[in-house]
Amino acid sequence: MSFCDLAVSGVAELQPYVPGKPIEELQRQYGVRDVIKLASNENPLGPSKAALAAVALSSKEMTRYPDGNGYALKMALADKNQLAPEQITLGNGSNDVLELVARAFAGAGDEVVYSEHAFAVYPIVTKAIGATGVVAAAKDYGHDLAAILKAITSRTKIVFIANPNNPTGTWIAAAEIKAFLEKVPENVLVVLDEAYVEYLEQQENTIAWLQDFHNLIITRTFSKAYGLAGLRIGYAMSHPEVADLLNRVRQPFNANSLAQAAAVAALGDDNYLQQAREINAAGMKQLIAGFEKLALQYIPSKGNFITVNVHSNAAEVFDDLLYEGVIVRPVANYGLPQHLRVSIGLPAENERFLEALTKVLGRGE
């Protein structure tokens, strides 16, 4: 007997999500001591002082369960985004919220639509609940909204759209998304995954769309621009009835007390967020200049990462970079076997990566 025969339909077909290689693992396996990690789209600044202070204060009550309703954080999010607290669902990172949407609104016999080259979690949560994933062909490495619209059928329950998209960094103009929402049947939920939205130079107030599109769910995270990836805290904003249903399948205490406290503090730290944007913009220019010097094609990105075509087997280049103490991310599992995704680091980290890449590719003078 195989235990795969006992598993829920679709689970046996899944491949586990592969995170970026931890620094400690590289040090242990390769014996490399001086390591930089540009693999997981983390904020190179580290957490803000305000967030660290909030964590220190909250840690004194670690013996207590967190507020299962997340009152303080929901109130802070509601105030910042001009929403009712009843429209917010907290999660153990935004990945958790994406899974809640799938569990609450789809199942066997239903279809979930997402784009080619889109975030790996979408097919994972779809197959895990026994639903059928429908992949719409990408356009210029990004979402083709016309193709996604054509993929919607009477069996479609959910559409996932990442904007900016991970791992390609592509972005769709707000007017295009709004026009798309106007054409989607009201009984199909559209999840607008905005994990990297804080890095956009000009941000459309997509949250205001919730008043007109009750089938819209917007997900965001504190893991990227706010520098709290290790604490795992994200959230969804939606119609109150949708939020109520999501909270019915949410695990109790899925947002821990340290994460909630840090997130509240981070929301009020505009100076830190601006600094994160500036570091990211400068680092993006630095990497682009390096790629152009090496005559490497790249996908223009609106996130805190950039995906570059190394014009060879990217898995081999990734391995060679590990020996140089540099961790990036191969994206063959996204249908991009010649590309590497590189997170924006501090100036010295970006320069070291470019030097290592030049050496590995044999492009040095």
Automatic annotation (TrEMBL):
Pathway: Amino-acid biosynthesis; L-histidine biosynthesis; L-histidine from 5-phospho-alpha-D-ribose 1-diphosphate: step 7/9. InterPro entries: Aminotrans_II_pyridoxalP_BS, Aminotransferase_I/II_large, HisP_aminotrans, HistidinolP_aminotransfase, PyrdxlP-dep_Trfase, PyrdxlP-dep_Trfase_major, PyrdxlP-dep_Trfase_small. This is Histidinol-phosphate aminotransferase. GO terms for molecular function: histidinol-phosphate transaminase activity; pyridoxal phosphate binding. It catalyses: L-histidinol phosphate + 2-oxoglutarate = 3-(imidazol-4-yl)-2-oxopropyl phosphate + L-glutamate. Belongs to the class-II pyridoxal-phosphate-dependent aminotransferase family. Histidinol-phosphate aminotransferase subfamily. Homodimer. CDD domains: AAT_like (cd00609). PROSITE patterns: AA_TRANSFER_CLASS_2. It comes from the Bacteria. It is an enzyme of class 2 (transferase). One of its GO terms (biological process) is L-histidine biosynthetic process. Residues 34-357 form the Aminotransferase class I/classII large domain. Keywords: Amino-acid biosynthesis, Aminotransferase, Histidine biosynthesis, Pyridoxal phosphate, Transferase. Its cofactor is pyridoxal 5'-phosphate. The modification N6-(pyridoxal phosphate)lysine is found at residue 224. Its EC number is 2.6.1.9. It comes from Methylophaga thiooxydans DMS010.
